[in-house]
């Protein structure tokens, strides 16, 4: 039967059946159809369906089995649809439409090996994170409700974090990414803990004239296209935003440098080896980028220092409004990493210029990525006897 | 499970997969063990990894781990650690303390009379005392900061357990520095910008390839590399084997500068250069003088990478300070090395690539900062710092430093600190004007002179008024100096609690002693290779805790239960949960870089290997870019003159390295007329500090008539009518001990040695009592190395020896307490 002739039949009024029969029949057929559709839909909402694909079974399902959502004291298990299928109908259908893309991937083999899955993991995860972020982790909160939480039963550390989260009605996944599956490799060379710090501390909008603090070591550039590298900003360094150009920020970095050598290292203040960052040889010698002011001799070394302002470009991101959360992270990491072998010295046990020597000497015993090293050293220097009232 | 087709197929797959992987290491050992009854387990220790055969609940055989190509002889002492008569069997309380608590007669401390109590009673007493100290005094009265060479294992690391638990109850006094490298780790950050003593060094392959001259300065790596901070791999020995070959082939010249023919010198068959004890700085100054006057120094290197050479030269030339020119002739008088020999060595150093390798002994003496600083100055003058096979190292004898690091992450540990946000029961941070952190070796000063202000590293320290000590994972009655002074001091303490598996002298002088189990009686995990991070090792429990001993985890969970913090303490997790977590944390950190199996598989197989690392040169980055890779010194450069130290205005550590006369020095130095022999108390060859001294059968392989050996020269023996194997009394104004004479050509006249770590066994509790076993710290002096480091000066010590003719007392050091019923 051709399509036009079928269309004709559908369009023609009924000649044999009464309106009632038609209405009722249509209703019945609707019920049957709906039932079948819903049953089919529900079938796609079972764990069996989810893991009928090899990709799911071999990757995320295996990972789930290692977590508390699979096996725990109370015997309650969260299966795939509990977290990944919205319980509300409209959202559910929307998610199903989206998921068909993943089925397409299955049929056409985009994700048919572990390697390909891992390559895709970040993208796939980000879809889910966006969804959780938009609905404030609704699927988590179907079981875990802020109102039902007894904060007093939590550890003191958890209390602080969870009370803060509850006040802000924060989305669970803001902090609990990777709770049921392994995390994707997010940023090359950036540790998981750092990625989390960045999630919670980074601001998204910038105002000109305002000062922000780098969360980790960040590249700086000579141009707004971010094409010519000018050096690197150290962690927890204040920069003043002068101009916003799309995703690029023009920032001012102020500090002091030694005049011996090329003057590449910018320190926070005169006589203090607290690094704010460093410049490339070319940038350090470029009067267009770096303006010099007064010079004086550091009595402790006999070397001459120069106050400078460097104006450079950087990507808009990984900047915080204050150092508060950065120091929280640094403090905790310092206390846990550096107490593995010995009692970690108090922050104010040494002065700012002694800390680099003490810290560098012990680094081979701890597992700290470059950003963590930088931020901890700076934390120690900024809380050293030079900045502490409680000297000893 | 019923056998259906699917499971059947899965089973076939699994077994064929297993056969493809091949027999694991564990399977191999299991096969080897087929003829012997029992099962084989794997574990690790400071002495290396090994497999133990356990039969009938007892360790009956120990053999080295297959990865260890150079296992130490000390593995023969392992069984003796577990089954030692010196084990702490039950919770014990000192007799008079039990009767009178903190008002006890403290002069009875050391009489070794104890009462056995139950665990509950012991922990109640411990808790009540913590409570009393915090409420009656404050955090300044409690010293829980002495920690040290705990048994290995990252989870059960006992110092972490003790400090976490005590910190959950209240604050306390802590220490900074340690007894091994106190002076070195304080001076070198000023000079080279890092402690150096605990930093990875230039890789051995690069040294073997590039060095033409290696100077071992007071350094005995063949002796000291037997032990490591984490599980030791003994990887360095393969390179020492190669070095020995190169010495034989004439490819590398090695000179050992040492008053003693060391184990290393004899192993390598290298040159021996005798030097008078404690005079190393004089010889180094003369080498510098030769380099400078003969223009052999690298002025370009000094200009580019160093500061302050111009302020050091006048001292060298006799134009400043003492106005004495530091010529080889001047030095020869002091150090006993001929001037021409010094000149020849200086020229040889400058002629080609020279690697200086320092040991730690010469900084464990008065002015211990100076030889390390001067070593750096020599290396700077030679201009080879940052080049492969050149420059200076202070650590190639320690924990396989110099074996390239794999780059993998090791496992974390049970947290030493309370979790973030946790407040102690007594949240009192008022230290009553006392310093809350003290230099490690000055705690006995604090007990004797509370409130005294001392100089330390540019600041002032006010010594706290200590009333109570908690000791775990260390043995202060071995590692501190001057026993009789300690005895005096301990009379001022109200309560001392020690947690140990061994009845050490520290237990003898305590009030409450809690029996921990050994590391072989618990499950744990460790890094294989402290610096090389060669792999991760499972430490499978060999046997259950003996007697009433418990893991430190168990002990301190129960202590915390007494103040309602046990859940916070353990985070509600047990041993295996913690192990899994530490392992998974390590696996996460290595993700994408080093493959690690699931925990269960790891635990079965017992070991994950990360492979060998790439060779690396210390300070090469600095040499390449001194601006960006600046050193951690105040200037970022090598500081030959330190304005900062100069500003401190100390009389015993000034702006640049100098020769200082010692309070006691042999070979014509101060005090040598009364006590002519220099006593060196270096690290033992057949123990790890005081660990394994309790291993009876193993101790008998080196003890002399049941006493610790004292090594002396044939000439010194002859003059005193002493023969090899004789019992001798070693004494000075500070104390006296019995030891067994070992007369050997390896020792020069005027030089004697007792290895530190020999257990203290006094005749009785009286001050001045004879030590019956031979602990050298019975006679060493308790003196800060300088106002800078305030470190131990154990090697500044003179003694006299005589043949012992009196009635021979039994050895009291071992075998536990006298139980009063």
Structural commentary:
The complex is a heterodimer of chains A (392) and B (821). Chain A has 392 residues and is α+β, with helices and mostly antiparallel strands. Chain A folds into 3 domains: 47-174, no CATH class; 204-320, no CATH class; 324-387, Orthogonal Bundle (Cytochrome Bc1 Complex, Chain D, domain 2). Chain A is 42% helix and 16% strand. Chain A has helices at 3-11, 19-43, 47-50, 54-64, 80-84, 89-107, 114-134, 138-141, 156-167, 173-176, 192-201, 281-284, 324-337, 355-362, 370-382, and strands spanning 211-214, 218-221, 229-233, 238-245, 248-258, 265-267, 275-279, 290-298, 303-315, 319-320. In chain A, the strands form 2 sheets. In chain A, strands 8-9-5-4-1-10 form a 6-stranded antiparallel sheet, with no helix packed on it. Chain A has a 4-stranded antiparallel sheet with strand order 2-3-7-6. In chain A, helix 13 packs across helix 15. The radius of gyration of chain A is 29 Å and the shape is elongated. Chain B has 821 residues and is α/β, with parallel strands linked by helices. Chain B folds into 4 domains: 24-66, no CATH class; 92-179 and 409-598, Rossmann fold; 201-404 and 617-648, Dimethylsulfoxide Reductase, domain 2; 677-819, Beta Barrel (Barwin-like endoglucanases), CATH 2.40.40. Chain B contains 29 helices and 30 strands. In chain B, a hairpin with a 2-residue loop joins strand 2 (50-55) and strand 3 (58-64). The radius of gyration of chain B is 27 Å and the shape is globular. Residues 1-31 of chain B have low confidence and may be disordered. At the A-B interface, helix 9, helix 13 and helix 14 of A face helix 6, strand 7, helix 7 and helix 27 of B.
């Amino acid at each position: 039967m051709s399509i036009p002739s079928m269309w004709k039949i559908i369009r023609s009024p009924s000649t044999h059946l009464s309106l009632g029969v038609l209405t009722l029949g249509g209703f019945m057929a609707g019920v049957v159809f709906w039932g079948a559709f819903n049953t089919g839909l529900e079938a796609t909402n079972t764990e069996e369906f989810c893991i009928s694909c090899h990709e799911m079974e071999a990757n995320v399902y295996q990972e789930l089995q290692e977590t508390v959502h699979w096996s725990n004291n109370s015997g309650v298990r969260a299966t795939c649809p509990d977290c990944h299928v919205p319980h509300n109908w409209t959202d559910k259908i929307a998610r199903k439409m989206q998921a068909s893309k993943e089925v397409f991937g299955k049929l056409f083999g985009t994700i048919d090996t572990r390697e390909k899955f891992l390559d895709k993991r970040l993208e796939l995860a980000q879809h889910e994170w966006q969804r959780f972020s938009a609905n404030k982790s609704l699927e988590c909160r179907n079981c875990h409700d802020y109102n039902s939480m007894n904060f007093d039963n939590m550890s003191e550390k958890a209390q602080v974090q969870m009370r803060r989260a509850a006040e802000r009605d924060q989305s669970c996944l803001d902090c609990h990414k990777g709770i049921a599956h392994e995390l994707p490799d997010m940023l090359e060379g950036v540790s998981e803990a750092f990625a989390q710090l960045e999630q919670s501390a980074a601001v998204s909008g910038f105002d000109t004239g305002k000062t922000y603090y780098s969360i980790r070591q960040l590249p700086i550039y000579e141009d707004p296209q971010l094409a010519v590298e000018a050096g690197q900003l150290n962690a927890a360094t204040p920069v003043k935003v002068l101009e916003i150009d799309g995703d690029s920020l023009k920032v001012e970095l102020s500090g002091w440098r030694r005049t011996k050598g090329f003057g590449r290292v910018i320190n926070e203040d005169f006589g203090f080896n607290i690094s704010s960052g460093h410049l490339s040889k070319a940038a350090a010698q470029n009067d267009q980028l770096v303006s010099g002011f007064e010079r004086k001799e550091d009595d402790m070394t006999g070397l001459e220092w120069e106050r400078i302002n460097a104006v450079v470009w950087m990507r808009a991101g990984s900047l915080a409004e204050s150092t508060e959360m950065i120091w929280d992270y640094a403090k905790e990491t310092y206390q846990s990493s550096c107490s593995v072998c010995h009692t970690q010295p108090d922050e104010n046990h040494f002065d700012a210029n002694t800390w680099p020597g003490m810290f560098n000497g012990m680094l081979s015993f701890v597992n700290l990525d470059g950003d963590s090293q930088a931020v901890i050293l700076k934390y120690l220097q900024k809380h050293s006897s030079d900045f502490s009232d409680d000297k000893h | 499970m019923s056998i259906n087709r699917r499971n059947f197929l899965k089973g076939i797959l699994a077994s064929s997969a297993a056969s493809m992987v091949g027999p694991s290491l564990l399977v191999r050992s299991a096969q080897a063990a087929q003829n012997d009854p029992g099962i084989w387990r794997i574990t690790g220790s400071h002495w290396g990894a090994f497999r133990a055969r356990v039969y009938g609940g007892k360790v009956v055989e120990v053999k080295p781990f297959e990865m260890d190509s150079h296992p130490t002889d000390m593995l023969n002492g392992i069984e003796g650690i577990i089954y030692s008569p010196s084990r702490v069997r039950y919770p014990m309380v000192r007799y008079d303390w039990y009767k009178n608590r903190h008002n006890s007669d403290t002069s009875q401390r050391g009489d070794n009379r104890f009462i056995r109590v139950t665990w509950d009673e012991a922990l109640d007493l411990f808790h009540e005392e913590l409570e009393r100290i915090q409420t009656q005094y404050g955090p300044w009265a409690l010293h829980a900061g002495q920690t040290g060479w705990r048994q290995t294992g990252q989870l059960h690391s006992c110092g972490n357990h003790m400090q976490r638990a005590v910190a959950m109850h209240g604050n306390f006094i802590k220490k900074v520095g340690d007894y091994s490298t106190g002076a070195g780790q304080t001076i070198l950050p000023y000079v080279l910008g890092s402690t150096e003593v605990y930093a990875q060094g230039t890789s051995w392959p690069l040294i073997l390839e590039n060095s033409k001259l290696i100077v071992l300065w007071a350094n005995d790596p063949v002796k000291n590399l037997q032990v490591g901070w984490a599980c030791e791999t003994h990887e360095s020995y393969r390179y020492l084997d190669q070095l020995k070959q190169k010495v034989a082939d004439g490819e590398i010249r090695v000179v050992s500068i040492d008053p003693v023919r060391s184990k290393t010198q004899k192993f390598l068959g290298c040159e021996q250069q005798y030097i008078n004890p404690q005079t190393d700085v004089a010889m180094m100054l003369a080498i510098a003088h030769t380099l400078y006057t003969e223009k052999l120094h690298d002025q370009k290197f000094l200009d580019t990478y160093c500061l302050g050479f111009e302020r050091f030269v006048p001292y060298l030339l006799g134009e400043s300070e003492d106005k004495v020119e530091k010529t080889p002739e001047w030095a020869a008088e002091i150090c006993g090395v001929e001037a021409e020999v010094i000149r020849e060595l200086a020229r040889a150093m400058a002629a080609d690539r020279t690697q200086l390798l320092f040991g730690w002994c010469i900084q464990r003496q008065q002015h211990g900062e100076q030889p390390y600083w001067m070593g750096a100055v020599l290396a700077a003058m030679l201009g080879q710092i940052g080049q492969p096979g050149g420059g200076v190292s202070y650590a190639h004898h320690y924990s396989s430093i110099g074996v390239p690091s794999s780059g993998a992450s090791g496992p974390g540990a049970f947290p030493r600190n309370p979790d973030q946000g946790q407040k102690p029961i007594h949240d009192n941070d008022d230290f009553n004007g006392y310093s809350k952190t003290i230099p490690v070796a000055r705690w006995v000063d604090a007990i004797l002179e509370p409130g005294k202000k001392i100089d330390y590293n540019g600041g002032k320290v006010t010594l706290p008024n200590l009333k109570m000590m908690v000791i775990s994972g260390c043995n202060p009655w071995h590692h501190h100096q001057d026993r009789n002074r300690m005895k005096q001091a301990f009379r001022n303490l109200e309560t001392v609690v020690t947690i140990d598996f061994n009845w050490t002298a520290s237990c003898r002088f305590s009030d409450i002693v809690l029996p921990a189990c050994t590391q072989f009686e618990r499950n744990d995990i460790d890094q294989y290779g402290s610096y090389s991070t060669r792999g991760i090792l499972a430490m499978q429990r060999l046997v259950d805790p003996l007697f009433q001993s418990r893991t430190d985890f168990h002990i301190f969970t129960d202590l915390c239960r007494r103040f309602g913090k046990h859940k916070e303490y353990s985070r509600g997790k047990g041993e295996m949960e913690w192990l899994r977590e530490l392992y998974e944390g390590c696996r996460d950190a290595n993700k994408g870089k080093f493959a690690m199996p699931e925990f269960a598989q790891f635990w079965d197989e017992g070991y994950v290997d990360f492979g060998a690392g790439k060779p690396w040169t210390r300070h090469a980055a600095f040499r390449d870019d001194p601006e960006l890779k600046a050193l951690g010194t105040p200037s970022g450069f090598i500081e030959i003159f330190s304005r900062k130290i100069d500003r401190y205005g100390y009389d015993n550590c000034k702006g640049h390295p100098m020769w200082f006369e010692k309070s006691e020095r042999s070979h014509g130095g101060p005090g040598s007329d009364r006590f002519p022999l220099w006593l060196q108390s270096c690290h033992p060859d057949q123990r790890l500090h005081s660990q394994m001294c309790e291993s009876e059968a193993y101790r008998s392989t080196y003890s002399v008539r049941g006493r610790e050996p004292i090594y002396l020269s044939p000439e010194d023996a002859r003059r005193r009518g002493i023969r090899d194997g004789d019992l001798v009394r070693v004494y000075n104004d500070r104390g006296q001990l019995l030891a067994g004479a070992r007369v050997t050509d390896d020792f020069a006249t005027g030089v004697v040695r007792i290895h530190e770590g020999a257990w203290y066994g006094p005749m009785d509790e009286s001050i001045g009592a004879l030590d019956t076993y031979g602990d050298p710290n019975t006679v060493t002096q308790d003196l800060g190395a300088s106002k800078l480091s305030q470190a131990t000066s154990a090697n500044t010590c003179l003694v006299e020896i005589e043949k012992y003719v009196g009635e021979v007392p039994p050895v009291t050091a071992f075998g536990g307490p006298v139980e009063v019923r």
